[in-house]
Amino acid sequence: MLDELMKRHDFTPEEKEYCFPMAMRLLDLGKVVVVDGILGLEDATMTDNVFLQYGIRMVLNGKSLAHIESELAKKITTHEYTGEKLLESLLIAKGLLTICDMEFTPTKTVSVIAILMGDEYVAPLMAKIHEDFDHDEELTTEEQAALLAN
User: What's this model's pTM, rounded to 2 decimal places?
Assistant: First the structure.
């Protein structure tokens, strides 16, 4: 459902720039999960972003990824988000689903963000990964393909 929403919209450079801090925040949340586990996200519920808060609460309540995706997609379509609000909501939804996947890697989050925002955001996001995670993780073939498909 989220993938269909992603395919139907082209976002302006201004909308992407507005949402870049959220992309960085999602990488921070990924680091929390790696270091502290899913329960480490509890502090992240103290955010002004109601959509992010809603998604994190579902994660902490043990909802399945399918349920979380369905609920977040419903919220996006019900409120008829557009522009930067739509992009931000898609980033949050896809980012949380990626972070909470049992096979999470930071580069998977970057590839999801790149699909929504474009290749020009890959370099600064990868720099953040290398700074935060202190390793030289390479993109897998699937992640490279996802980036190139954008």
Answer: 0.83
